[in-house]
Amino acid sequence: MNGKKDKERNGRWRCPTCKVEAYVKDRAIHVYVEGHTSAATIWPLHSDCPFTQDIDHIDFSKLERVG
Amino acid sequence: MSELEEVIKELKKLNDTNKKLLEIQGLQFALEPFRYITRKLRSGEALPNTLSYYQIIAPAGVFTVTFANPAGYVWIGIFQSIEVSQNGVFEFTGYVDDEILPKSYVPRMVSHVINWSETIPFGHVIKETTTLTFINHDIANQWLEADSMGIFLRKDVWERDVRLMDLAAERYMYPEPPPSPP
């Protein structure tokens, strides 16, 4: 695994479309979905949400860094 | 006591018993999980919620998702199924609300179906959040697919109704002893 690349992406990220946030730490990702009442689905909120990819294929350039 | 008075007394007792039976039947009708849920959906106190998702998890990857209820609502589970690409490679941990111990921990998860309403009626109620963690212990990408059905019910309504359910249970769970033989 590319350790340097893993470290660079560590931190909190947000999807610009659905505003869902996730915390990334090495090979772990924690997605936080808050308060949606849609009858159909609450995750993912849109089919092309980058967070639905596995950690090796998330396109971080499409996400906003929050912290 | 005359014979007629004795008959009247017995009839009164019978009438009381019938009233109690009617009350119990009414409670069973009102609190049976599917009827209760249907009624709450019709009255607008509850919202239906169907969740279905597909997730790919990288080798040695950890995927955690936290779902927070809309403010002022509890989530009551009705049905859940999980299908995995390979049995026995996912470690699963599920936390509900602020419980210290996980609600469920499965070291080697397999595909499964749980009917919450039939197995444990009202047994899966989430007051605020649920956090699910999946760890892929395999050397290849693996996927999981999860579905669930439930309702979001207004928290004040649930707290009131669950208190009524407990009161009814306390009242009827200890039947009167049978009459002593003459």
Overview of this protein structure:
The complex is a heterodimer of chains A (67) and B (182). Chain A has 67 residues and is mainly beta. Chain A has one helix at 3-8; strands spanning 11-14, 21-25, 28-34, 64-65. Chain A has one domain. In chain A, 9% of the residues lie in helices and 27% in strands. Chain A is elongated and about 40 Å long. The relative contact order of chain B is 0.22. Chain B is of the alpha+beta class and 182 residues long. In chain B, strands 1, 3, 6, 7 and 9 form a five-stranded antiparallel beta sheet that branches. Chain B has a four-stranded antiparallel beta sheet with strand order 2-8-4-5, with no helix packed on it. The mean pLDDT of chain B is 91. Chain B is elongated, with a radius of gyration of 24 Å. Helices cover 34% and strands 37% of the residues of chain B. The A-B interface holds A 27-44, 52-57 and B 47-58, 60-71, 73, 141, 152. Strand 3 of chain A pairs parallel with strand 2 (62-68) of chain B, so a sheet runs across the interface.
List strands and helices in order, with pairings.
The complex is a heterodimer of chains A (67) and B (182).
Chain A: H1 3-8, E1 11-14, E2 21-25, E3 28-34, E4 64-65
Antiparallel strand pairs in A: 1-2, 1-4, 2-3
Chain B: H1 3-31, H2 33-43, E1 46-57, E2 62-68, E3 73-84, E4 90-96, E5 104-106, E6 112-114, H3 116-119, E7 125-126, E8 129-136, E9 142-154, H4 155-172
Antiparallel strand pairs in B: 1-9, 2-8, 3-6, 3-7, 3-9, 4-5, 4-8
